Amino acid sequence: MVQFPHLLGNFTNALKAGQLDAHKVAMYSLWLLLIGIGYVVFYGIGQFRNGQIGRRFEYRMRQQLFSHWELLSANYYRQRSVGDLLNHALNDVRTIRDALTGGVNIFSNAVFLLAATLYMTFTTVSVKLTLVSMIPICFVPLFIVWWGPRIRNASRRVQEGLSDMADLTEESLSAIRLVKASSNEDMESLRFQTRVESIVKRQMTMFKQSALFQSMIPLMGSLSFAIALFYGGYLTVAHDITLGAFVAFTLYLAMIIQPLQQMGFVFNYFQRGSASVKRLSILLEEVPEIQDPVHPAPVEAIGGKLSVHLSEFSYPDGDHPALQNVHFDLGAGQTLGIVGRTASGKTTLANLIPRIFDPPENAVFVDGHDVKALSLKDLRESIAYVPQDGFLFSATVRENIGFSRETATSAEIEQVAKDSAIYDDILDFPDGFETMVGERGVTLSGGQKQRTAIARAFLKDAPILIMDDSLSAVDMTTEKRIIDAIRGVRSGKTNVIIAHRLSAVRHADLILVLDKGTVIERGTHDELLEQGGTYADIYSMQEDTGGAAG
C-alpha cells in the first residue's frame, strides 16, 4: 500500500512533463492493481490467522478456568456467586479474545504501515517536511498515558456491572418457582431493570472516555495536514520538492493518520482487555484452601473405620464454633446415626469426613489415618456422599445414576435403582432411564431426586456411605425399603446416616444426638430410650405422629 503515493507522485511528475503515453498509463494501472490485490490477500491471511489464535485462546482459557474452579474448595463458593464466575468465563474471556484477535492484527498492520510510510517520506519526499508535519502527532503518546487508566477503570466497572446482572439472573431463575408462586415477577423485573440501567450508565461512561480519546487523534492529524499543506506548498513553490513529491506526501500523510487512528482503536481494546486480564488473574491466583498433603499416607485399600476427636470447628466466615467436643469411634462395617434439631451441626460433621470443609489436624481419622494425611483422591474415592438436596445433573436418569461409575452396566444401574426404590418410578417416566432430567432435577419430585441420588451412591459401592438427611422427602414405606437395602447391600461397609426421622437410624450401631454443635447423647436406639433424654422426647413425639415407626 505504501507504494501507492510513490507511484501516483511519479505519475504526476510524468503527466506534468508530458511523458505519459497509453503504455505507461497501463503499466501504472497494472502496478496499482497488483499492489492492491497483494495487500488484500496478505491482510485476509492475517485476519484468518489471528481469528484462529483468538478462538484457541478462548477455548484454552475457559478450559483453564473450569479446571481451576473444580480445584477450589467449597468455602470459596460460600463467598462467590455463580453468576459472577460465569461472567468471567463469558465476558472477560471474550473481551481479551477481541483484544487479541482484532487488536493484534490491526496493531501489527498499523505499525508496519506507519513504519513503511515514514521510511518512504524520508527517502522519497523530504526529511524536513516529514519532521515538521509530525510535530502534532508526537503528542498522541501523551494522550495515551493520560487516558489509559480512565478507560481501563471504566471497563472494569462495566465488567463488575455485568457480574451483578449475571448474579441476579442466576438467582432469579434458580428461584423461578418461588417467584411465580409469590407473584413477584414485576419485582424481579424491576430489580433486573435497575441492574441493566446501571450497566448502561457505566458503558456510556466508558464510551465517552473512548470517544474523547479517539477524537484527539484526528485532531492531531488535521493539524499535521494543515502544516503539511502550508510548509509543503512553500517547499514546492521554492522548488525544494517536486509537485509529484508534494502530492505523494499529502497521500502519505493520510496514510500516517490512518494507522494512528487504528492504534488508538487498538489502545481502547487493550485497555478494556487489561481490565479483564486483571480480573481473571485475581481469580486464577486463588489457591484452594483444601489441598493434598506434601507426602500423602500410602494406603492400599480403605476399610471404613471412622474416628472423630474434635475439640472445636468453626467456619472461616463464622463468628462462633459450629462443632464442639465431638468424639466417637466407629468400626469398619458399622452404621452411625446422627440426629438433632435443625442447625445442630449434623451436616457440618458429615462434611468434615471427605474434607469438603477442612477439619483441624488430628481430629478426623479414617482407618487410623488423619484425613488431612490422605490424598484427596484416595479419601474421596472411598466415600459415597448423598447431599441433602439430592442434586442431579441436567442429563438422563441413567447418566445421573451412572455418574459415580462410568463403567457400570445397564444391569447394575437397574439393580441400584431397585435397591433405592426408584426403579418403578423410572419405568413410568416418558423415556424410562433415558428420560432427561431438567436442571438440578427440576422435573422430578423431591423424593424422586433423593432416591436417584441414593442409587448413584449405591452404584459407587464405596467403603463409606454418607447420607445427609437424604430420606426426608420419602414416605415411611419407601424409607423402610431403602433402610432394608442399606442393611443388605451395604452389609460389611460403613454407613453414616443423618436423619430427622428416628426410624431411619434406629438400627444403627451408634447414634449421636447433636444440639448446638455438641454431642448431648450417644448410644444405641434402646439405650437412648432408656436415658429418657432428648432422643426419647423426639421418639415419643414422632411416634404420636406416626414418624418413628420402623
Give the key terms.
18 helices, 550 residues, alpha/beta, 61% helix
Q: Could you characterize the architecture of this molecule?
A:
This protein is of the alpha/beta class. The chain has helices at 3-16, 22-71, 76-79, 82-124, 127-133, 140-174, 176-181, 185-237, 243-284, 346-352, 376-381, 397-401, 410-419, 423-428, 446-460, 476-489, 525-531, 534-544; strands at 306-313, 323-330, 335-340, 364-366, 369-370, 383-386, 464-468, 494-498, 510-515, 518-523. A 6-stranded mixed β-sheet has the order 6-7-8-3-9-10, with helices on both faces. Strands 2-1-4-5 form a 4-stranded antiparallel β-sheet, with helices on one face. Helix 1 runs antiparallel to helix 9.
Portion in beta strands: 5-15%
Low-confidence region ranges: none
Spatial strand arrangement across the major sheet = 6-7-8-3-9-10
| SSE class | alpha/beta
H and E order: HHHHHHHHHEEEHEEHEHHHHEHEEEHH
Q: What is the residue-averaged pLDDT?
A: 81
Number of helices: 18
Map the helices and strands.
Layout (H helix, E strand, L loop, with lengths): L2 H14 L5 H50 L4 H4 L2 H43 L2 H7 L6 H35 L1 H6 L3 H53 L5 H42 L21 E8 L9 E8 L4 E6 L5 H7 L11 E3 L2 E2 L5 H6 L1 E4 L10 H5 L8 H10 L3 H6 L17 H15 L3 E5 L7 H14 L4 E5 L11 E6 L2 E6 L1 H7 L2 H11 L6
Parallel strand pairs: 3-8, 3-9, 6-7, 7-8
Antiparallel strand pairs: 1-2, 1-4, 4-5, 9-10
